[in-house]
Design a protein that fits this description.
This protein has 428 residues and is α/β, with parallel strands linked by helices. The protein folds into three domains: 2-44 and 63-78 and 201-268 and 370-421, FAD/NAD(P)-binding domain (3-Layer(bba) Sandwich), CATH 3.50.50.60; 99-182, no CATH class; 273-363, Alpha-Beta Complex (Polyamine Oxidase, Chain A, domain 2). It is built from twelve helices and 18 strands. Strands 1, 2, 9, 10, 11, 12 and 18 form a seven-stranded mixed β-sheet that branches. The longest helix has 26 residues, at 131-156.
Length: 428
């Protein structure tokens, strides 16, 4: 039986970041990846001259040291910095994002209704009980009904009253009534991702940067985790290996980890959606300004469309299109592609361009449903796992909404904790 100090599950951002920052002299680190490629959802497709990711992965670094660590391990001039242009298509007109700060750009009747409902929004006696109640209490029924509720229901594929009020954390574009009215005359649409970076050859370049300095044999491709004996601290893999570990760091979805470890839990507590992504390449340019557009109206199947060509300055329209779905929905690829193309034509995104290349992928899970019961169960079960040396990390391991940078910061801190714990004693 093999023995390692650190057994890492998943060779995406979280798993590779941990392997980067752990002290290799203090014990062996082994990363299991069930796929035949590293990257998780940060894989990149190079096809017919187009560069696509599994979905739009754009990086918003708040910590210069994290960005510097990655860029130093990438080819020179690989990364471009972009000032975000994001908009919303509402009633056939483009409105600047965020919607709640730009209601003055709506048709007059909608603007008046949104402003009226904002001013006379309901006052709660206590904290909001769910995400929908928070939206209405903060922005009024008019803004909630026109964008915030329908858009997020398309994204999460569930009713908004099922999600926790703080489900999106710092990523929710907040604003108070003074911000909204001030924006009528002095536009200020800055948000956490007002400026973002993106590699010329796709998000996989960030993965390559994390993989670059790892010793050969650290990552085992095509080998997933099948079961874990928590008492013996022994993992069984999909290729029949048994590996004894001191610590297991898992970026696998938390509900999957619970099944693998056999830890009793309520399966219906941890729910999520899946997202079907179509990457589409055309023979000519389309809209020249936006980097991505939100689609709240139900007549469009998709909730967001991104323009790689506008981000990278290329001469052919290159899109990613995202469709939120329930986990039990069947994805009919040909039918969804036809419906997507019809929607893009109806929206005016596609006119006389010809589709010359396309790719699709289904992300499952895509967005976890953050609810009160899920938060409580996660915390209780996480403590139980950590007491046995098992640490769930990342967006799906941590059952949360976070950025790629957050994953790096989390696993770096965890590695630093272990480094300190196992550091050799200093001489007196």
């Amino acid at each position: 039986m093999e023995h390692v100090r650190y057994l890492v599950v998943g060779a995406g951002v979280s798993g590779l970041a941990f392997a980067n920052f752990i002290d290799r002299g203090a014990g062996r680190c082994l990363v299991l990846e069930r796929d035949q490629q590293v990257g998780g959802y940060c894989k990149t497709i190079l096809q017919d001259g187009f560069v696509w990711d599994y979905s739009g992965h754009f990086f918003h670094f708040r910590h210069p040291d994290v960005e510097r660590y990655l860029v130093e391990r990438m080819p020179a001039d690989e990364v471009v910095t972009v000032e975000k242009v994001s908009q919303i298509l509402y009633k056939d007109r483009l409105v600047d994002f965020p919607f709640q700060k730009n209601i003055h750009q709506l048709p007059q009747e909608d603007f008046i209704d949104c402003l009226h409902e904002l001013y006379f929004r309901p006052k709660l006696d206590g904290p909001p009980e769910n995400f929908q109640q928070m939206l209405i209490a903060r922005f009024g029924q008019g803004i909630a009904d026109r964008f915030l509720i329908p858009y997020n229901e398309k994204l999460y594929a569930c009713p908004m009253d099922e999600l926790d009020a703080g489900a999106m954390g710092r990523f929710f574009p907040d604003a108070d009534i003074e911000d909204i009215i001030r924006n009528f005359k002095r536009p200020d649409n800055n948000s956490y991702n007002a400026t973002f970076t993106y590699p010329r050859h796709g998000a996989i370049e960030y993965i390559k940067a994390l993989q670059k300095d790892l010793p050969e044999g650290t990552v085992c491709l095509g080998e997933g985790l099948v079961s874990v004996d928590m008492e013996r601290k022994v993992a069984q893999t999909s290729v029949g290996r048994q590996i004894a570990f001191e610590y297991l760091i898992s970026s696998a979805p938390f509900d999957a980890l619970l099944k693998i470890t056999g830890l009793p839990h309520e399966p219906l507590v941890f729910t999520s959606n899946k997202v079907a992504v179509f990457n589409l390449g055309f023979d000519a340019k389309g809209w020249s300004d936006p980097h991505w557009i939100y689609f709240p109206e139900r007549k469009y199947r998709f909730y967001r469309v991104g323009f790689y060509d506008n981000i990278m300055g290329t001469d052919r329209m290159s899109l990613y299109v995202e469709i939120g779905m329930k986990t039990d929905e069947t994805v009919d690829v040909e039918a969804e592609l036809a419906r997507t193309m019809d929607g893009l034509r109806a929206a005016g995104v596609v006119t006389d361009q010809n589709l010359v290349s396309w790719h699709h992928v289904v992300l499952d899970p895509a967005y976890v449903h953050i609810t009160g019961p899920a938060r409580q169960s996660f915390e209780r079960l996480r403590q139980h796992l950590q007491a046995r040396g098992i640490y769930p990390v990342g967006r799906y391991g941590g059952w949360t909404y976070c950025s790629i940078e957050d994953n790096i910061l989390e696993t770096r801190a965890l590695a630093q904790m272990f480094n300190a714990l196992h550091a050799p004693p200093t001489s007196p």
